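Let's practice the habit of predicting before peeking. Look at the sequence and jot down your guess about where helices and strands might fall. Then scroll down.
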Amino acid sequence: MSTLFEFAPKTRVAYGIGRYLQIGNDVKSLSGESKAVVVTDPGVVGVGLADLVLKALEEGGVETRLFSNVQSDPSADSIDEASEVIRSFGATCVIGLGGGSAMDVAKMAALVAGGEQSAMHYALMANPFPFKVIKTIMLPTTSGTGAEVTSTVVFSTPEKRKVWGWDENMAPELAILEPEFTKALPGFLTAATTLDALVHAIEACTGKRSNPFIEALSLQSVQLIAENFEKALETPDDLEARGNLALAATLAGMAIEQGGTGIAHCIGHALGTVGRIHHGRAVAIALNVAYAWNAEKEVGIHAKIAKAMGVDGAGLTEKELALAGAEEYSRLVEVSGLKLSLYDDGLTKVNIRQLVETMQSGENAPMLNNNCREASIDDLQRFANNILELQPLEA
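Done guessing? Here is the structure:
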């Protein structure tokens, strides 16, 4: 390979059942002090996970504050509220406990708290973040976003437009993967978040910034998901399967941290803006209509992905194997039980133009441009049509 590249993982990863019990020591060793804010959401509080972490912190000699006003698809206002809690408490460490939304709020609030500006001041890299002085620890309760190891956050503006923030120092210092913490995840969220991780892995290794390190992380993630996804859906308390999915999500997160995402995330973010569609479901639906189209262009890597998904390539040409991977991906989406039709979410063909325009917006351009195959306006319109033409079976 002649292309120049660098690969530099930024986050230390700790894995194991009961590993979260050491979090008090983690806070003190990372920050040198013993004051932390835990950022989470009402669902995590409701199932008792926040209490477990707060107790572990207390037993570890750490004084804490809890911020739980985080909703799915978090807002700039939520980040600002969390930042004020961090400032007023004088925290030297922020812990993100939850899915991608809670972790994104925690990561960005830790940086925003170091300055005087609001979250919107930093949207889409309009202005540089303050130098990072507050350490961050992530404790994911889903196996999907990979936010525990990335330098990017996604949030919504007051106008409900999905935007992003990035800083080279935003990646957490530590990610703690605790398989027990994902057992309480409902079936829908297990499906949606795992498919999000799968899309991350596929898009990272097929994108224009891929390299052998990204490919290795991605293919291992794909294999772990293929081997454990259905087990976790069928037996939610299977800790081995849950643990393997947690590892897969983090591997995929490390892959997109270096390699970025592609057209499925471009379309998925547009669906989030236009119809408030859950992120994992949105990107899963998006790749479902774009996978074979991508595979036709980049046959070799898609053939490797198919093998990692467990497709038997005996007697198949490389292109046939690549396209068989698209079929296997569609099978996993079907097995997941995710509803492909967006009709009940209020989206129909009337929204095609708005959806296509949003795909082309500035906040989605990096994802569109990183895709392995260049998409024309006609391509985007076709994808939008294929997504929005689906009607519920009873309609």
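How did you do? The beta strands are 12-15, 35-39, 63-67, 93-98, 135-140, 152-156, 162-166, 174-177.
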